Amino acid sequence: MSPRASVPPRETWPDHPPVSETGAAMTELVLETFRLNARLNEAAQRLADQGGMTAAWWQVLGGVLDEPRTLAETGRRMGVSRQAVRRIANILVERGIAEYRPNPAHRRAQLLACTEAGYWAIRQIGLVQAPWAERIGAAVGVEELRRTHDTMRRLVETLEAD
After folding, report:
1. In 50-141, which ranges are continuous DSSP H helix?
2. pLDDT of residue 5
3. Span 121-138, pLDDT tens digits
4. Neighbour tally for 40: CB within 10 Å
């Protein structure tokens, strides 16, 4: 059944609930976050290009730089689904940027680990990412960045608990 066929006449639609100042501010923040996410994804792609990677590859590889992890652990750490991690991990493994290792704690859930080629790609990205972060961060200021980070962390915690 198409969505169009099930839409009732507009005059029968329920009234929209009232929106408080807090609700309006939250909606404005969500919309601005969407715009920020788009700009950050564009910047991440430009930076990832320096390592011959995509922003998505960089994100997944970033989840295993310090130690090998299962795909599910990597997904939770990076905020993406296990299925998305699996798709990207398979590409990283095909390209020699990452590898699967046996998991002594679980026979079926292999560990994803970074290879030397992966660390090299990340190093290449870091050579341009660090100056980029300095430039963008300086334009905003460290105290405002810290306040924003605290707010974002509280929002994530609240959304995860909701």
Report:
1. 55-62, 71-78, 82-94, 116-140
2. 73
3. 999 999 999 999 999 999
4. 13
pLDDT band, residue 52 (cuts 50/70/90): very high
3-state secondary structure of 113: strand
CA dist., res. 99 & res. 63, Å (int): 13
Pairing assessment for the beta strands 69-70 and 98-101 based on DSSP bridges: unpaired
Best CA proximity match to 123, nearest among 40, 68, 62: 62
The Cα angle at residue 158 between residues 141 and 17, in degrees rounded to 5: 105
**In sequence order, which ranges of 95-141 are alpha helices (DSSP H)?**
116-140
Distances (CA, A) of 153 to 23, 108, 147, 157: 19, 33, 10, 6
Cα atoms in the Cβ-side hemisphere of radius 13 Å centred on 109: 11
- When the pLDDT of each residue in the chain is averaged and rounded to a whole number, the result is 94
How far is the C-alpha of 40 from the C-alpha of 34, rounded, in Å?
Answer: 10
How crowded is residue 122: how many other Cβ atoms within 10 Å of its Cβ? 19
- Rounded alpha-carbon distances, angstroms, from residue 3 to 7, 10, 50: 7, 14, 44
> What DSSP element (H or E) covers 29?
helix 21-49
